[in-house]
Design goal:
Elements (H helix, E strand, L loop, with lengths): L6 H38 L10 H10 L3 H37 L2
Helix pairs in contact: 2-3
Length: 106
């Protein structure tokens, strides 16, 4: 089936164009949700460093102060937290799938 194309080429020419509308819709919805939560947090809880400041508000504050390096460090921390949280979930899901596949075999 691949007609000689490698995985990356197949992904770039077939899979990505087919998935692009969904990927773009997800990005737009994620961005809109993040903006909505950002505004709600600022209005309801405020932006008090050390008390009600979320990581998104801290990044915003650092950018407003012109502290790009500090903002980028906070972004890196946020990405690391997400990766640290998602990695075990993906590992567990993969393990459950392999168990399910073994159970389905006669």
């Amino acid at each position: 089936g691949s007609l000689g194309a490698n995985g990356l080429w197949t992904f770039a020419l077939i899979t990505l164009p087919l998935a692009l509308p969904g990927v773009l819709a997800g990005a737009v919805l994620g961005f809109a949700k993040a903006l909505g939560e950002f505004g709600a947090t600022v209005i309801v809880a405020g932006n008090i460093p050390g008390r009600t400041q979320t990581i998104a508000l801290a990044i915003f504050s650092e950018i407003q102060l012109g502290e790009t390096d500090a903002a980028l460090r906070l972004v890196a921390i946020a990405v690391a937290i997400v990766g640290w949280t998602i990695a075990p979930l993906r590992k567990r899901r993969k393990r459950e799938r392999s168990r399910s596949a073994r159970a389905d075999k006669p």
